[in-house]
Amino acid sequence: MSRIFVAFLAFFFLFVFQTSFIHALPGWLMLLPVFFAVSVYFTQHHSLAIGAIWLSAYGIMLDLLHINHVPLEFISYSAAGLVALVLSRRLFSNRSLWGVLACGAVSSGTLFLFHVLILFVVQLRAPEHVAWNTFLNESLVIFLSLLLLLFLLFQFAGSFRTILIKSFLLSKKHETF
Amino acid sequence: MGTWTSNQLPFLSRGDENPYERIKSLEAQRNALAIDYQELDALRRENVNLKEQLDFLERSGEEAVTATIIARTSTNQASRFVINRGANDGILEGAPVIVGKGYFVGKVTAVGPASATVTASTDPSMAVAGALLNQSRTLGVAQGSFGKLIRLSFIPHDEVIRENDLVVTSGLEDLVSSGLLIGIVNKVDSELTSPFQEAVVEPLADINEFSTVSVLVRKEIHE
User: Fold this and answer.
1) Gyration radius from chain A CA atoms
2) How far apart are CA B115 and CA B87, in angstroms?
3) Closest CA to B48 of B211, B162, B179, B217
C-alpha cells in the first residue's frame, strides 16, 4: 500500500515538475523530457514496471488537462511505456549504459512513430494544424536531450537505488546492476 | 606554519572568528541574499503585472477572474496552459484571457469545476476575430502560427495594411470584447494570385513570461 502511495506521490511530483517548471523554461530547455527520461531510466536500469505505468498515466493526464502536443497522448505514451517494459525484460541488459540508452532511444522512437501517425490523421482533417518541419526539429532536440538526461541519470545510479529502497519502491534483494 | 599558528591562536587575530569560518559565514549570507533577491524579483514582476491588469480592468469596466498558471505545454507546435480557476468561478468556454495592460493571450478552451485550459493565441488551433486599428478598421481572423507569431488572414486586397499597425479583437465573438490588444503587424503578405492578403502579427505579450493571468467574464453571465 505504501509503495503505491509513494509511486503516486513521485508521479505527481514529476508531472508537476515537467509541466509547471520545465515547460516554463526559455528556449529549447522547455523541451527537456525529464519525465520521460526518469520513467525509462527506472524501467530499464532498475527494472521497475512503475516507470512504464507512469508513462501511460502521463499521457492520460496530458489528455485530461488538454495540454497535449498531439491528440490522444495516452495511446502514444502507453505504447512507449509498453515498449520500454518489454525491452527492459527481454532484450537489453539492465546493467549497462548502452542498454539504458538503447531502451530510451527505442521507446522514444515508438513515441515519435505514434505521434507521426496521429499527426498524419490530423493533417488529413486540418492541414494548417501540422508543421512537419517544426515537429521534426523539436523531436530531434527531445531525442538528443533524452540521451543526455539518461547518461546523467546513469551517473547517479547508486544514489537513485538508495532513494528507491528508502521509499519502498525497490527491495534490497532486487539488484539489477 | 604561520597560518597554522594563527589558526591555533584565534584571540590574537582581529576578528572573533577565524578567516575560514568567516568566509563560510559570508558565503552562506551571500547565498541567502541571492535567494531573497530572486524571490523579490519574482514578486516585483508579479506585482507590476497585477497592477497593470488592475489598471486595465478599472479603465475598461470589464470584470475578470485572476488565475495562476499551474501547468503548461509550450512548444512551437502547441501552446496551452492550465489555470487554477474553473466553472465554479464563473469561467466559461471561449472567455478571453489577458495579461498586463490588457494584452490578449488566449481563450479558454476547456473548463473543469476548479481548473480550465487556455489555448494561447499563438497556438495553430486557436483563431479569434481580429481587427486592424487602421482607418477602415479592417476585419480578419487572427490565427496562431508555428513559432510565436500570429497570422491575420482573410483581409481583402483593397484594404491598406501597414507594418506596425495594431491588431485588436473585433468583438464579433460572443464572449470576447472588442479592443483587446493582440499584437502588432510585422509583415504583410500580399500575393495577387491569392484571394486575400495576410499579415504576420507579433504578439505584444509572451505568455511564457507570466505566471498570473486574468480571465474576462461578462458581468451578466458571472452574476
Assistant:
1) 16
2) 8
3) B211
Check pLDDT > 60 for residue B12. Answer: no
A2-166, which class in CATH? mainly alpha
Q: What is the pLDDT of residue A27?
A: 81
Q: Residue B129 belongs to what H/E stretch?
A: strand B127-132
- Interface confidence, given as ipTM, is 0.73
For chain A, percent of residues with pLDDT exceeding 90: 43
Beta strands B197-203 and B212-217 are unpaired
Closest CA relative to residue A56, chosen from A135, A130, A110, A129:
A110
Chain B positions touching A19 (Cβ under 8 A) are 71-73, 82
A134 vs B146: CB contact, 8 Å cut-off?
A: yes
The set of long-range contacts for A17-25, using a CB threshold of 8 Å and a minimum separation of 24, is A18/A58, A19/A65, A19/A67, A19/B71, A19/B72, A19/B73, A19/B82, A20/B69, A20/B70, A20/B71, A20/B72, A23/B71, A23/B72, A23/B73, A23/B74, A24/B69, A24/B72, A24/B74, A24/B208, A24/B211
User: Is the pLDDT at B50 greater than 80, yes or no?
Assistant: yes
Of A68, A149, A78, the residue nearest A114 (C-alpha): A78
Please report, for chain A, the start and end positions of each structural domain, with discontinuous segments joined by +.
2-166
CB within 8 Å: B77 and A69: yes
Please state the rounded mean pLDDT for residues B186-210: 86
Q: Rounded CA gap, A177 and A46, in Å?
A: 8
Residues B96 and B87: beta-carbon distance below 8 Å = no
A80/B114 Cα distance (integer angstroms): 31
Q: What residues in B contact A66, CB-CB < 8 Å?
A: 80, 82, 109-110, 117
Q: B71, exposed or middle or buried, with CB in 10 Å at 0-12, 13-18, 19+?
A: buried
B:104-133 residues touching chain A, CB 8 A cutoff: 109-110, 115, 117, 124-125
When the pLDDT of each residue in chain B is averaged and rounded to a whole number, the result is 84
Q: Which of residues 136-165 of B touch A (CB under 8 A)?
A: 143, 146-147
A67 vs B115: CB contact, 8 Å cut-off? Answer: no
Buried/exposed A48-73: b ≥16 CB within 10 Å, e otherwise: bebbbbbbbbbbebbbebbbbbbbbb
Q: pTM of this prediction?
A: 0.76
